[in-house]
Structures are given as C-alpha cells and as structure tokens.
Amino acid sequence: MIHASLLELCCVGGALFLTSNVWFYLRVLRPIQKLSRQAAQLSQGELDSFDRQCGGISEIRQLHRAMSGMVGHVMRAQEQSRAYAEQLANGQENERKRIARELHDDAVQSTIAVTQGIEMAKNWIQTDPVRAIQTLHLVREQAVEIVASLRNIIGGLRPPALEELGLIPALEMQFAMIPDAKVKLTTKGDPRRLDEAQELALFRAVQEALRNIVRHSKATHVHIDADYQPQGVSLQVQDDGCGFRPPSHLGDLAFQKHYGLLGIQERITSLGGSLTIDSQAGKGTSLKVYLPTSADNQPNDRVRDPVCSALIESQQAYSSISYHGETYYFCCPVCQGAFQRDPDLYLNTTPSKAPT
After folding, report:
1. pLDDT of residue 251
2. Are 138 and 213 found together in one domain?
C-alpha cells in the first residue's frame, strides 16, 4: 500500500516536473530564443525582423512590443531623414542656381555696362566733355545700383541687420515681405542680444513663417509675439489665412513636402528648443518657437537612456524629463518621445543611473 502511494506520488511529481518544464520551454525559453534571433537579425540591418510575434509570457510580449516600437521609430526617422536630406540637397543646388543667375543677370551685366560707359566717357573727354560728364553721372548711378543689388543678395544669405542691430529690428525689416497683410509685432519682457546661433534660428523661423504666409496663406493680418523670458525666448507668428492640416508628428512634414518648416524644426531642436504648429483649414495658422537661453539640466555623471539604454556622458544629454520625482535623460528626440508616451513601460526594467 505504501509502495503504491509512493509510486503514485512519484508519478504525480514526475508529471508536474515534466509539465512545468514543457510550460517553461514553450512560454519562456522558446520565446526568448525567438526574440534573440530577431535581435540578431536587427543587428544585421533587417529592420522588419520584429514584425513577427514571439509569444511567451506577458513580460516577454511587453519587451517585444517595446523593441518593436523602437524599431518603428528608427525606421520612421530614417525615412524622414532621407526625404529631408534629398530635398536639402536639391534646395542647396537650386539656391546656388538662383544666386548665380542673379549675379549674372544683374551684377555682371550692370558691371559690363559700367565699364562700357567709362570707355565711352574716356573717348569723349576731349571732343565732347559735357557728354562725357553726363555719361559718368549715369555710370555712377549704375554703380550705386550694383552695390544695392549685391547688398540684397548678401542680405538674403546672411542678414546684416541681425548682426548689427539684433533680432527685433531684423524682424521688423522682414515685414516688407508681405505687403498685402497688416503685420503687428508685440514685444514682452526685456529684449536682449542672444547667442549668434540662437538669434539666427529665431530669425529664420519667423522668416519661413512669413514666406509661407505670402505663398499659401492669403492672410490679411499677421501678429508676431516676442516674449523674452528669464530662461528663454518665445516667438509666435499667428495669421488669419486659409490654414492647413499639420501632421500629428512634426517629423512627418517631410512627407507633406513642408521642407522649410522641417528645416526650422531641425535648427530649433539642435539648440534644445521646441517648435509647435497649430492650424485648421479656414482658421489660420499659429507657429510657436521656444528657445532656451540658459544651460539645460544635464547629468553630473554618466547615465543610461531609459528607452534604448544608451550610455550618456556627462553634459551630453539631448534632454531630460522629471517623472515621479526622478530625472531621466535621453540621447535623442525619438527616445524622449517614446518615454513620454508610456514611461512605465521602460521604468520597470531599466535603471536610470549607469555604473560609474
């Protein structure tokens, strides 16, 4: 009787052991192996490797979703960068053609006319001095026009007023771009000179907004707010034009061929700022730029990005976010956006601090 009970107990124990091992293999070990193979394929450049589900327990499925989301961000960022890089190259080439055409058709031709006028005045200086003097007066006017033309070209490349007078006067000179609309500029705070790169970024943002108003908006009123805050500068350009439907993610501007706005976003983001666009069809457009003028919060020692686990050296973080009393640092905007959407997904498994 005792032997039979022991035999039954051993059979039950063996069955439980076998069942637990089968369950562990099917629900843990095999899904981890699949996940490992997908990661290896990803390292070889197969970005679609995480499209296939690996199954397993909820923690493994959660890890798979997180890694699949990261791959999706990378793929989208690559597509956006490729589209923007192609347009940037085309834009640079078109800008070179435009400058070459303006120099040839205006400055070069006018200079040739000046030299011809000087030669004619030289020939008439003895025989007809009055006509020679009149020709020299005409030549002088042509030379003044050449200087003005060259200044306009140089101003389009690098506005002298921005360097000499500052942001606000340089913006006021841009209002001539939109003669069909009434422009109002409001300044708050204490206007001050900023770093050269910061002033240029803010100037280009407003300049691009005004160009879009001229080309697409058909606005009659434009309001520009410049707010000089202690820690940064905020600029908002608002119009009453036809408006448009902006994408949910500004990076998708590349797919809508709004390359000018995308370039502004790249420039502002590289300086630690932010760009937001609010627009509706028939209700105008509002473009707001914020640029910090003081040093961002940076780690004092090495930390790890909670999303991709990249090691971030001291003072090299792209940005930081405070969550539940802790500060988390990020290596790029993709990781920051992923964390903002679902921070708890990454905090369960990844520590913020890196070993020193």
Report:
1. 59
2. no
Mean pLDDT of 50-54: 72
**Whole-number Å distance between alpha carbons of 315 and 331:** 11
Q: How large a percentage of the chain has pLDDT more than 90?
A: 7
Contacts 24+ apart (CB under 8 A), 271-279: 271/197, 271/198, 271/201, 272/296, 272/319, 273/201, 273/232, 275/205, 275/250, 277/246, 277/250, 278/246, 279/243, 279/244, 279/245, 279/246
Burial 213-224 (b: 16+ CB within 10 A, else e): beeebebeebbb
CB 315 within 8 A of CB 328: no
Between the CA of residue 228 and those of 93, 159, 192, 201, what are the distances in Å?
A: 36, 21, 8, 15
8 Å CB contact between 96 and 118: no
Range of the domain at 67: 2-79
Give this prediction's pTM.
Answer: 0.51
Tens digit of each residue's pLDDT (9 = 90 or more) over 253-279: 655 556 677 778 878 888 888 888 888
Same domain, 151 and 166: no
